[in-house]
């Protein structure tokens, strides 16, 4: 029972922490972020398992986490409310070549981030070639170019 | 406010600016809470040093303990007795508190430990002419939440303390 409670608490605390961090931070996983994620995993390991290093305890923790993930994904599918709070919503940040500066500032995205996505995804050269840029729920920027 | 994107153009997207603004506000509040949490931890409000340490003196009995400790993490209580009247020195701890912790080590080791109806009594032998003794109880909290305890000398002063055990 203790292992299940630990896993549930850790799951929802991490979910909350990563949602507070903001989608942009998760979208740009740099090498350092990857290392940071590993350290976070190490840091929660003990609180997840306590002093019980048995295989049973490990399997209980992993099963609980995976099951919770399934439950949350089912809840997201059935409830719009859960979906927008757990996943967030996409955000238009460039409209017909015009950067929506206030939104970009709030979402911690700058024009260079948009242009980086425009260059790498669409081979575009200038902002005015972008019809839509959307900050997606996973933190990535998707680009819809203007029609020629 | 930025101009709303032209809805007549055909971008099928489930955006929700009202929700997004609410989320941004919550995020900023979350950042403040995270900062406060880290600061509270740095000054010892979440245990381990700083404000977590507390000293108490009553008569010839002095104690140093942790006001804030953590579940299943090492903690200690140091008890000092100046000019002990008895030999052996008998220090007691109330049983309710003792049941909430796991003793890891007592330095120096008591000569005997006796269980009374509501207390544990530890006896420490001293050399003749010894003016003070200092005993450290190394322990691990095994219950979460507020805990009150009492430690005293048999036929002597009693120190009451309060601590909070974080999960």
- Name the CATH superfamily classification of the largest domain in chain B: Immunoglobulins
The CATH topology of the largest domain in chain B comes to: Immunoglobulin-like
Q: What is the average per-residue confidence, as pLDDT of chain A, rounded to a whole number?
A: 91
Strand order of the largest sheet of chain A: 2-1-3-4
Structural class of chain B: alpha+beta
Query: Helix/strand/pairing class of chain A, anyone?
Result: alpha+beta
What does this structure look like?
The complex is a heterodimer of chains A (148) and B (167). Chain A has helices at residues 2-21, 23-27, 31-49, 55-78, 80-87, 101-106, 111-122; strands at 91-95, 98-99, 130-135, 141-145. Chain A has 148 residues and is of the alpha+beta class. Chain A folds into 2 domains: 2-87, no CATH class; 91-145, bsu07140 like domains (CRO Repressor, 2-Layer Sandwich). Chain A has a 4-stranded antiparallel beta sheet. In chain A, helix 1 (2-21) runs antiparallel to helix 3 (31-49). Chain A is elongated, with a radius of gyration of 19 Å. In chain A, 20% of the residues are buried. With 167 residues, chain B is of the alpha+beta class. Chain B folds into 2 domains: 13-43; 53-166, Immunoglobulin-like. Chain B has helices at 17-42, 95-98, and strands spanning 53-58, 61-66, 68-70, 75-82, 89-94, 101-107, 112-115, 119-124, 132-141, 145-153, 158-166. Chain B has a 6-stranded mixed beta sheet with strand order 3-11-10-5-8-7. In chain B, strands 1-2-4-9-6 form a 5-stranded antiparallel beta sheet, with no helix packed on it. Chain B starts with 16 loop residues before the first helix and ends with a strand. The relative contact order of chain B is 0.19. Classes of the chains: A alpha+beta (148), B alpha+beta (167). The interface between A and B is medium-sized, with 27 and 22 residues.
């Amino acid at each position: 029972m203790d292992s299940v409670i630990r896993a549930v608490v850790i799951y929802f605390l991490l979910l909350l922490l990563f949602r507070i961090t903001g989608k942009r931070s998760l979208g740009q996983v740099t090498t350092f972020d990857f290392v940071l994620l590993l350290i976070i995993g190490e840091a929660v390991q003990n609180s997840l398992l306590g002093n019980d290093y048995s295989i049973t305890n490990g399997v209980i923790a992993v099963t609980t986490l995976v099951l919770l993930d399934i439950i949350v994904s089912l809840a997201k599918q059935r409830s719009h409310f859960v979906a927008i709070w757990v996943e967030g919503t996409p955000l238009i940040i460039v409209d017909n070549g015009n950067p929506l500066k206030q939104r970009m500032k709030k979402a911690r995205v700058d024009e260079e981030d948009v242009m980086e996505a425009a260059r790498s995804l669409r081979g575009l050269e200038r902002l005015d070639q972008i019809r839509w840029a959307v900050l997606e729920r996973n933190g990535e920027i998707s680009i819809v170019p203007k029609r020629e | 406010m930025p101009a709303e994107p032209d809805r007549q153009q055909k971008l099928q997207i489930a955006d929700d600016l009202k929700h997004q603004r609410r989320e941004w506000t919550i995020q900023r509040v979350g950042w403040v809470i995270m900062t406060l949490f880290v600061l509270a931890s740095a000054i010892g409000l979440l245990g381990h040093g700083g404000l977590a340490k507390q000293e108490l003196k009553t008569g010839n009995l002095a104690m140093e303990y942790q006001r804030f400790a953590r579940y299943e993490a090492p903690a200690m209580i140091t008890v000092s007795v100046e000019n002990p009247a008895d030999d052996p020195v008998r220090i007691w701890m109330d049983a309710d508190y003792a049941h909430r912790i796991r003793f890891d080590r007592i330095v120096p080791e008591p000569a005997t430990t006796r269980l009374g109806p509501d207390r544990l009594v530890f006896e420490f032998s001293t050399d003749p002419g010894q003016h003070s003794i200092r005993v450290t109880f190394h322990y691990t909290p095994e219950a979460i939440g507020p805990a009150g305890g009492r430690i005293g000398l048999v036929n002597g002063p009693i120190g009451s303390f309060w601590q909070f055990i974080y999960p």
